[in-house]
Amino acid sequence: MVTDLWHRLRAFVLRRSVEDEMAEEIRFDLEHRTDKYTRAGLSGGEARRRALLEFGGVDQIKEEVRDARGTRLLDELVQDLRYTWRTLMHRPGFTAVVLATLALGIGASTAMFAVVNGVLLQPLPYPEPDRLLSLYEQTDWSTQYGNRWSFSYPNYLDCRDSRTLTLAAFRYVGGTLAGPDQAEYVDGREVSANLMPMLGARIVLGRGFSEAEDAPGGSPVAIISYELWQRQFGGQPAVLGQRIVFEGRPRTIIGVTDTRLQPGGPNDIFLPIGQNPEPRMRDRDVHGVQVWARLRPGVTAAAAQNELAVVGRRLAAQYPASNRGRTFMAEPLRPNVGDVRSTLWLLFGAVNLVLLIACANVASVLLARAVSRERELAMRAALGAGRARLVRQCLTESAVLSVAGGALGVVLASASLAPFIAFWLGTLPRAKSVAIDPQVLVYALAASLASAVLFGLAPALRSATRNLEAALRSGHRTLGGSSRRFHGAFVVAQIALAIVLLVSAGILGRTLLKLSALETGVDTRNVLVARVALSPTVMTTPEHMRASWRDVITRASHLPGVQAVAVVDTVPMRSGNNQLGYATSAATPPPDRQPLALATSVTPGYLAVMGMKLRDGRFIGDEDRFNTTPVVVIDEVLARQAFSTTRAAGRLLWFPQMGPGPFEVVGVVDHVRHWGLAGDDQAAVRAQFYYPFAQLPDPLVRRWSQLMSIAVRTAVPPLTIVEPLRSALRGAASDQVLYEVRTVDQLASDTVAPQRFLVVVFGVFAGLALVLACIGIYGVLAYVTNERVPEFGVRMALGATSGDVMRLVLRQSLGMLAIGTVLGLSAAFGTGRLLQTSVTGVQSMEWPAVATMVALLVAAALLATLVPALRAGRVDPLSALREI
Amino acid sequence: MHFDRRARYAPVEAKGVYDMPAERLELPQGTLDLLILKTVALEPHHGWAISERLHQISSATLLIRQGSIYPALHRLERRGLIKARWRTTENNRRAKYYELTRKGRAELDEQTDAWRKLAAAIGQVLETV
């Protein structure tokens, strides 16, 4: 076997010298043979003739020897490649157009696959990611939020001694970092010491936490992220041992993590969770710890689940007050990619439709060429080329084109990845794992070869099925029905695909227009919102914190250009909300039966800052203090839900989670689209109420103070007061910071950013599809019309007018257009349903948009038909007949 | 990977090209290889010598299109049954000499044995029936 392969390989690589050797061997034989007859007395010529007769046909023998060498397929491949090269070089324009089309199609598809692969398909960047689990608590009863809970810290500690799992915990801890330069607000996580070893995450510099540090009274240490290291410490190795002040507490940096360690999202700082002295960490009723786990070697997920259930039952018996009906569940740990999944798949689908259209285009171009090469192919068949050989040759050409196009496409894709990610609204999750890696290259190759089959098969098969004798006789002047049907099929496919993309773009575009025209419920112009992290030194007593907030409002309102100031916990159209159950009587239903409303804690200036309209009663005022009647202001949605009227001032409401109540409704305001322009209409909880920050119960003030934002209405462009505001609020110790600074205009516009992004991308794709489809229609019709010139000549000679001939061409085009449109519309209907389920805000098929888009395509297609039709009408019967 | 086109250009094609004695025998498929192996078993030969020896030994009773030993030689070489080497002849010409490999010798023994058994079996049938 090895000798065999080696022999073939040698024969192939050294085929020139092998060929020479064979020639010499045969010459040697013939000379001796001739010699033999000469010596027997024959004349030179006669001896030679006898020798040749005896030997057999020299060229035939040579062919057989070549066969025997076993390199025929390879030889032919080389021949085919050379031939392909020559024919392609012979028509550089044609080649360039085909290559450009394929490069665009395959390149776009490859780039999109790279994104899908990096964001959705790549496993977590840890060893054996399939053995990682995410754990949560589950109760056999539900609240209004459902029955899934994050862990309480004591429950985590009780689950930790597991035989089947290695458990690790972390919880969010954001705060002010007073660095060498200035204070900034950073996101962080308190983590258990074993989180990084359990995941297999790398420490870039220094070390991880020790078990001693992950316990009450452990030394104050911190690990920082790679990004923070680069940003604040310039990537200096001397960062180890340096002190930073986080939330007013000095800590020593002991390590720098790998940039990929992002439990729960990007973090800048990690602290040991076991050191946290807060009482909440000892309370089984406080749930806020996330638990990840890794299966121990040889353990199945089912065994781990069984063990967790046993622990759950034991704890339920031991601590019935907090754990009755509560158990622990495990599910596979997946990368957190938010809501981009459906968007990415949509784009991937769309881009592949473009690729299909490109393939159809190339196929019809190649088919046209195959028809004009019919005579050549027939000649080659007549000279002994096998059918299989001809098909192979055509496929070789397709493969060369598509692989070259694919290679160009990969270049395009790698160049376009960075701009695409930058263009992505906000931050694309896991953008770091998007790259042209081997999987993507394999995809590009597969896409290229699949394209080659798609666009190369029809021309290739055609080359084989032609009737040789008829083709030679007829030349290239007639065009059989089968070929026209082939061409027609490609045009129909192109039109159908283009319609799908155009209709999708139309639906999205119209949805975006509708959404942009919606009222947000607030006056979005000239409003600045920013989160404020109070100085850690004042976060002591509720009185201190309340006073600090009053101070913040006073300082801000004295800035020039500021018209109104308020402090608020949740801001419309920004992430974050507080959903509370409410009731209209003192006899409140159980929690899972209570309707929910969005609670917003505000100061009196909020109405003026947001420019909301008051429908009834009054807004919250300075008279609503800690010791006065608890009041709320509700929006019209809540008013209708609770009282079936918007004139609800003076009515009473109960909010069991905020105290015994009742709360007096003092006013009604307009609804505010808290969930954004796109999402609010379909949101599950829309009702809203506002309550005075001054009446917030003492135990909650600390938590709320970590969440509050300042909202400012300005008379000047709001971004110009960011710096004055920042310095005005810095505080005595310069450690009071603003973060997440936004204008409400930005927030409103960001809520339709995904839709806008999709409209742009789909618009580009649809435009591309439209152009490609028109080129396809034009090309095919121009070609078919050209081939039918003699036929038109005959028709006109027999009395047809040029109008008749034009109608003939038009009818052909309209037929294809009609079939393509019907097919495309039925596919587009499915796509419309898909858009409705996967894009927020799309609520109907948007028929006007569909009609517009179909009209656009039909118009463009007719335009593409016009030129060939006119040409057909101008055929001169005499010269046309001469061409037959 | 390899196209064997022997079937299409069987040695029979030489028939009719020039007249031949009526008693000449057609060579059964595949036996040419065996004969070539046998010819080079004693000492290395070049193609022409193999051809001549086959012709002489068989007393010209076998119908072989003489050139067809070359495809056969290349096939055998590829299978590793013989190997080729360029050497100078007595007349000081370069020629390609073929010799049997160890694998080739084993193949020759096996094929000879098989052929004998087959011939004997067929002979027996022909005589008894």
Walk me through this protein's architecture.
The complex is a heterodimer of chains A (884) and B (129). Chain A is an alpha+beta fold. Chain A has four domains: 2-70, no CATH class; 129-332, no CATH class; 341-517 and 753-882, no CATH class; 535-735, no CATH class. Chain A contains 29 helices and 24 strands. In chain A, strands 1, 2, 3, 4, 5, 6, 7, 8, 9, 10, 11, 12 and 13 form a 13-stranded mixed beta sheet that branches. In chain A, a hairpin with a 2-residue loop joins strand 9 and strand 10. Chain B has 129 residues and is of the alpha+beta class. Chain B has a single domain, classed as Arc Repressor Mutant, subunit A (Orthogonal Bundle), CATH 1.10.10.10. Chain B is built from four helices and five strands, in the order E-H-E-H-E-H-E-E-H. Chain B has a three-stranded antiparallel beta sheet with strand order 2-5-4. In chain B, strands 1-3 form a two-stranded parallel ribbon. Chain B starts with 24 loop residues before the first strand and ends with a helix. The interface between A and B is medium-sized, with 31 and 34 residues.
